[in-house]
Structures are given as C-alpha cells and as structure tokens.
Amino acid sequence: MMLDTIVRILRASGVYAWEVSDVKKQGWEFYFIRHALDQHRAKNVEHITVKVYQLIDGGEAMGFASAEIAPTAAEAEAEALVRDLSYRATLVKNRPYTLRSPEGDAEAPGSAADLNAISGDFIRSMRELPETESEDVNSYEIFVSDVTRRLITSAGVDETERYPSSMIEVVVNARRDGHEIELYRNYRSGSCDAAGLKRDLEKAMRYGRDRLAAVPTPVSGKYDVLFSGPDACEIYSFFAARMDAQMVYRKMSDWEIGKPVCETVNGDRVTLEALRTLDNSSANHSFDAEGARIRDTVMIEDGVARHYLGGRMFASYLGLEDAFIPSNYSVSGGTHSEEELRQGQYLEAVEFSDFQVDAMTGDIFGEIRLAYWHDGEKTVPVSGGSLSGSMNDFVGNLFMSRESVQYDNMRIPALTLLRGVTVTGVEK
Prior knowledge:
It is a single chain. With 428 residues, this protein is an alpha+beta fold. It has helices at residues 2-11, 75-89, 115-127, 194-212, 232-242, 245-249, 312-317, 338-341, 391-394; strands spanning 17-33, 36-56, 61-69, 135-153, 158-176, 179-189, 215-216, 221-227, 271-275, 297-301, 304-305, 328-332, 345-357, 363-375, 379-383, 386-390, 398-400, 404-407, 410-413, 416-424. It folds into two domains: 2-209, PmbA/TldD superfamily (PmbA/TldD fold); 215-428, no CATH class. It has nine helices and 20 strands. The strands form three sheets. A six-stranded antiparallel beta sheet has the order 3-2-1-4-5-6. A six-stranded mixed beta sheet has the order 11-10-9-12-19-18, covered by helices on one side. Strands 8-13-14-16-20 form a five-stranded mixed β-barrel.
C-alpha cells in the first residue's frame, strides 16, 4: 500500500516534519443530452499528497515543499520524491513554526454515501423541472462521490473522515424571435439539493428569456445595486478574507479583534460564523488540511471582529493556538424584508460575465450580462456595461434581508443591497 510505504520512508528520511494527505473517491458520472442518457461510468481514484518541512540556517528559518505521487508508484519513485522535496524545502525561508498536534481522540470517520440514492435524486429533480417550448434543458452532467480523506503527520495527527460530494453542470436554452441563448450553471453540494436546484434552474431559464429581450444598460452614475444570486458570495468572502490570519499578519487587513470592522455604519452589521457543518454542504469536514479540528466559531459579531482564523503558519505567528481553516460559512445580521429592499430605484444584477471582489484592495468589478432596472414603477431587463466600487466603502452601506439562501458551503442573506455603486451604461 503506497500510503504505508510513504509514511515509512518519511519516518526514516530525517526531515524536520512531514504531512501526508490521502483522498479516495468512489463515484458515478452521468452525461445527459436533454433528458436522454448519453453515457455513464464509475470512477475509483486516489490522490496522495506529500508535504515535507526542513529547518534552515541552524533552525532560524523553515521551508516546505509538496507534491502528489501516484498510488501505483514504485518504492524507488517514492524515495526519490522525498529526497527531491527535502531539497526543495531548503530553498524557501519562513519563520519556524510547529505542526498542529492531535486534539484528543479522533472522530468517527462517517458512513459511506448512498451513490444510488443521490444519483436518483439528481435525475428525478432534472426530469421534474418545468420546461416550455422557449426555455428548456440542453444537457447536464452529474457527478456523485463517496470521499474518504485521511491525514497523517509527523506530529502525531492521524485523522480520517468520510463524506458525500456532488456536482451537477447544466446548460439551459432560451429562444425568442429566431434567436437562441445558452446559460451554463454549476452546482456543488453534499448530496442532491432538489429544492435549491429547481429554484435556481427555473431562474436560469427565466434569465435566458429576459436576456433575449434586454435593452442596453442605459444608466450611468451611482446607484443602489441589489444582488440576488450566488455572486453575493464574493461580497461575503471579502469579510472572511479580512479575518484570515495570513491577511492580518501580512498587514493586508487592518481589522482588529474587539473593534468594529467599520466605524460608521448606515446599513446592517454583519455577523460571520465558521461552521463545522452546514446542511448538505460538500465541505462538512471534521478537520482541516493540517489536522486542526473545525469548530463553530464566530468570526465577526454584529460588525465587531471576534476571531481570526486560518492556516497553521500565520496563525502561529499571531499566537493563535485554536485557529483552523474554515470550510463552511454563515452570514446573518439582516434587518430588512425582501419587500423592503425592493423599493424605489435600483439595479438588480443577476448575471455577470465575471464578478470579482479583491480581498486585498476591496475593489469590486463586474461586467453585466443581465440586470433588471427598477425605476420605482416598471422593471426593464438590461444588458451590457459594468459596475465598480470598493468594499471599503460598502461595508458601512450594506443592507441585507432577514431571509437567507445557501450556496453549497455558504449560507448568506437572500438579498444584498450595496448603496452608491458606480454603474457604467452602454454608450449609444
């Protein structure tokens, strides 16, 4: 068994420290053209990753290097890899730190995923999706996996967990007056989220129809922009990034524990939590990539920074012994109903060719594929142009719905409104 061989070689290598990650995936894949099965296959793959640490300059510095090795590799190949990593680790110099120690008895790894049931739920959900002559499903691909993940380290960590992981890729078509458009969707989850899948694909077909009827975005200036889809996750990822130990240590974040993340708040105050589990998330891990136990932890509470989290290296530099790398997030703090947020003039952005929030600068940018301009009386679908601004300004001008929605490993407000976003329309 290659894992046992790697561990034996590492123990005899004389390196300062090491980690071995072994991820096995047993799964099924289905490929449909419309609703006709085109092909399907089973998969059984294993990924082994080795990470080696070396002390340098008499223990004044430490470096590391990592690489993946095939589970079918010969022992000589494994020995050569460890020698190569041992050398490469001496080429990088960081402040020394120790690996994560075991945190009590290991948790039970979990049970095997029911691939048959999960696959059936996906196929059934797709076939029950309401379609019309002008909006329908072009094709879809389903991937379901039973994942077993094990981590062994020189510090004594030996943890195993087992969990389901699923993904579905869907292409929907919309037609109007001789024109046709395709929209691509990618959804990840633990097992099948039938209700969420139906909700989002029905929206996608409506967006395709409205995109064909959209007029050029006519508005230029600063406007309220409403986010009602998964792109809002990028907004809240900014909050998580600013509470990451690496960002704080490198002075890329000036958010301080016990202090408000924004001094002047005209909108809602964010509460951000890292969660051990989230219903049907594909990232319900019991331990992180370095062996730290994942726990429910409040990172930001009512707009006040509470806990930095992150990887072992930068967490240790900040003196954080209870830190870990989060895998699930929950955002709350909204004080408005959806009806209240949908008042007056605003632009509802639902489709971007790309939407980004720079964690370091706070800059946001998105090229608009489809949005809805609400002038207070009527709603018009628009396309083209862009929006921009800075999250450093929007943190104090952010309004959230009380209602929430989940996108895989993030639960966020169903509606997020940013005030004063720069919208650039399409030149006529």
